[in-house]
Amino acid sequence: MINAHRILERIELLATCSKLSKGVTRLSFTKESMDAENLVIDWMQQAGLSVRKDEMNNIIGRYEGRDPDAPVLMIGSHLDSVIDAGKFDGILGVIAAIEVVQALINSKVVSEFPIEVISFCDEEGTRFHTTFLGSKAIAGTLKEEDLQMQDDAGISIASALNDVGIDPTNFRAATRSKKDLLGYLELHIEQGPVLQEKQLPCGIVSGFASASRHILHVEGRAEHAGTVPLTSRKDALVGAAEAILFIEKNAKRNNGLMATVGKLVVEPGASNVIPGFVSFTLDVRDIIESRKLRFLQEVFEKIQEICHDRKLVFQYERILEIPSVMCSKRYVALLEEVFKENDIPALEMISGAGHDAIAMSDITEVGMIFVRCKDGISHHPDEHVSLEDIEMGTRLLLESVLKIVMNEGV
Ligand SMILES: [Zn+2]
Fold this sequence. Notes:
Its cofactor is Mn(2+). Homodimer. The radius of gyration is 24 Å and the shape is elongated. The chain is about 35% helix and about 20% strand. Helix 2 (about 30-45) packs parallel to helix 3 (about 90-105), helix 3 (about 90-105) packs across helix 11 (about 385-405) and helix 7 runs antiparallel to helix 8. Strand 3 (about 70-80), helix 3 and strand 4 (about 115-120) form a beta-alpha-beta unit. By secondary structure, the chain is an alpha/beta fold. The protein has eleven helices and 14 strands. Zinc ion binds near residues 78, 89, 90, 123 and 188. Zinc ion binds next to loops.
């Protein structure tokens, strides 16, 4: 029923819709993304779906059920990529969803409920520094001011929409009502090493970790590297280093919590000057909100102490806060059943990465299947998923869709 070779061929073809780069680079509202959209529209039509683009450039292919007014089960993922990305992130979910509906049509399965394959516009947020553009528009959580976000060339989302022939003032028309939707299922690569370590082809996402991002500033005094004794220095970088080591140590005490310092700016940044000012980012993710907050409090208190001892000044600011989201318990249970029927241990996983399912959870029940990717590599040209895993993931998606639509929404 599932033609994994066809899925892989399509993934390879979509990878050619890219700016010239080391990997796949397909930002939203570009020639590359329009080429990819046209392929997807073509494949949806070939499968027998009626296809439209909504007011936020999402592509929607609909397979009608017996009752056209019944709520819709949506399945899909996103088409855009980061810079120098792999071929599978997002894409696999869109192409597998087309394959699922193709299989239903080929077997003449008609359910009560319509099924829509969705290819979301701009999940990664690479171009406009914002995420979940298409899925937020559908969920009704996108705000007018979000459309004023600009890319590095100063082009806003609103004018990029205009450029592809979509009136940005209409964006609210893309919003679906809660009663219109039965649920949302997404198939996506894991983007981490857990499934490979456990030797499993697929896993079940039970929730999405909350994420906090802060910028921390440590201020000392920039002085001559050759004349000021070590005992009387106010070295901001040594203070920041001690802080970063504490962040790692404290994170290791909390199994499941992720803490990362990914960017460090040292000023004045000269080899013969004692660092006078350091700012660094702190990204913390955890499914347990209260534990994350406690962790942050401990970190800030400890850094305050470190800075006090070293006569440095410490300040911090929050730049991002995303609450944790749980998948639908009913869908998790249903996916567990499908996994067991296929003799695959049902491993429940917390996603540390963001996905369209998070935005969709604001209006409907969401479920998500992760597919193993080689060595956990993602957002990189070496991203790879085996043909066997593509086949298994798509089969699990198909059987889950069947269970949902045949059981009257479970
Ligand atoms: Zn993705």
